[in-house]
Amino acid sequence: MNPRPFTVVLIVPTGVGAAIGGYAGDALPVARAIAQTCDRLITHPNVLNGAQLYWNLPNAYYVEGYALDRFAAGSWGLQPVYQNRIGLILDRAIEPELCLRHLQAADAARATLGLNLTDFIVTDAPLGVELRQAASGASWGTIDNPGSLLRAAEQLIQKTKANAIAVVARFPDNIDSAALQNYRHGSGVDPLAGAEAVISHLIVRQFQVPCAHAPALSPLPPDPDVAPRAAAEELGYTFLPCVLVGLSRAPQFVTSPQQHAPQNFWADSVDAVVVPADACGGSAILSLSQTCIITVAENQTQMQVPPESLGINTIAVNSYLEAVGVLVAHRAGISPDALRPDIPSLHRLS
């Protein structure tokens, strides 16, 4: 019997143009494959969110990026749950018809999937989302009224006892922008992802509850050249379903080291981390650098931060298919070198 659950962290940074995971849910096949190699898969919403598409992975833990960084640093633990009460925040800037579409999606999640949602709330002022793009090509953004967002979350937590928060903010419609067209055609960077991360970070940092975001956008005109990886975002009027499904069983955060209950788990339980080879500069990777880090060369991003530049030792593979093989070997206690035809001789330590 294994001494403890085999635990893998799968990271694909958001808003950096990842070849796999840079679109809506296109890293889901990776997550599904890796979930078969481990007892616990910890990953973040943009890996598992596919707009109206999602996949139930019973051993996956849906952990927002700020919380994942805190977990990796050993500051927060994760507490598995059977069900969360999800509070829904709608941006006052959303037009009435588009707001109705999102409320219908929420009701559908209640009636069809059996999810537990509280009463919803509309922010007391428009959030004022603005999109930006860094010189590196990575996307980011700001919101003009963060206080309005935090007040809405606080009311849901206090008045409805919500212990997870879904946010729908009105994002700018940039139908003619080159960045959006490139993204729809399978190249470039998700122009929304950086701003989405800001929204969820604010709530998780302030209230220590699971949070994820779905943008509200006007439907785009049909485009016969949309790339398969971007096609999930062409469906319907809302990206909310995957967020509600993810939050429904997202682990709660344990913010005190004294709360070492048997069901809670911490960074010292992580056995391996899988990350794009040129995206090793994030806080979670730096915190977990002494763990088995598997870097995937095929998943290129705009970050250009390889492990060698940081002095991090990794197992380098070309594809996620190879990464799955390394994880299987690692779980079996087999050195990957033993699976190659040429095994170098041992050297005497000088």
UniProtKB/TrEMBL annotation:
InterPro entries: DUF3326. It comes from the Bacteria. This is DUF3326 domain-containing protein. It comes from Lusitaniella coriacea LEGE 07157.
